[in-house]
Amino acid sequence: MGFVYVFHGEGASFAAAVYSTVEDAKAAIVTNGMSGTLTAYPLGQTVYAHVVEEGLFKGKDSPEPRYIQRFTSAYLEHFHFVDGVLA
After folding, report:
1. Distance of alpha carbon 23 from alpha carbon 14, whole angstroms
2. Please, which residues have CB within 8 angstroms of residue 83's CB and are 6 or more apart in sequence?
3. Contact at 8 Å (CB) between 37 and 66?
4. CA angle, residues 51, 54, 56, in degrees to nearest 5
5. What's this model's pTM, rounded to 2 decimal places?
6. End-to-end Cα separation, the chain, in angstroms
7. Cα–Cα distance, 52 to 74 (Å, whole number)
C-alpha cells in the first residue's frame, strides 16, 4: 500500500491538489507560496481502515458509514504551510 499527498488550502472547502510524492507536493507549495495542510492519505483504503489495520486505533465493532466517511486521524503524516513556508 502506498500513500498520496493531498494539499488542502487554507479556507478551502475541497482539496486543491493531490501528489504522488511528498517532494513534489512540497515543491509546488513552496513555489506557489501557498498556505494550508499537506496530508499523506493511504491509497486504496479509508483512513479508518488504515489506522485500525496499523494498530493505531482500536475501532468499533460495526461502525456506521457516516462515522467512517467523516473519520480522520492525527496519526496521518501531515505538514502545515504558511505562505509557502513549512510552519
Report:
1. 21
2. 33, 34, 35
3. no
4. 55
5. 0.89
6. 28
7. 13
d(CA 3, CA 45): 10
C-alpha to C-alpha distance for 15 and 78, rounded to whole angstroms: 14
Residue 35 φ/ψ, nearest 5 degrees: -115, 140
pLDDT tens sequence across 26-68: 999 999 999 999 999 999 999 999 999 999 999 888 899 999 9
Q: How far apart are CA 17 and CA 60, in angstroms?
A: 31
Reading the block at residue 60, the C-alpha cell is: 468499533
Residue listed under C-alpha cell 509546488: 28
CA distances from 58 to 44, 71, 81 (A): 20, 13, 31
Q: Which residue has the cell 493511504?
A: 42
